[in-house]
Specification:
The protein has one helix and three strands; from the N terminus they run E-H-E-E. A three-stranded antiparallel beta sheet has the order 1-2-3, with helices on one face. With about 70 residues, the protein is an alpha+beta fold. It has one domain. About 25% of the residues lie in helices and about 30% in strands.
Length: about 70
């Protein structure tokens, strides 16, 4: 299995971020989620509004907003 994040704009369009790759893969869902928990602020600052978790290209869940609910 290959767990990856798809980075998206608010409209669902794919967004590429220098230094972070949606093609970066993780060996487990837990590893992918831990990485997101550690980097979501930087992703938001880079223009990512939401993410989708994928396993071998299959959508697992999302889109999930990176913005806080106020």
């Amino acid at each position: 299995m290959s767990w990856t994040w798809r980075f998206e704009a608010e409209d669902g369009g794919a967004v590429a971020v220098a230094g972070s790759s949606s093609s970066e893969s993780f060996p487990t869902q837990s590893d992918a989620e831990t990485w997101l928990g550690e980097t979501w602020r930087e992703l938001l600052d880079a223009g990512i509004q939401q993410v989708v978790l994928q396993d071998a290209g299959r959508k697992v869940y999302g889109p999930m907003s990176l913005r806080s609910v106020d």
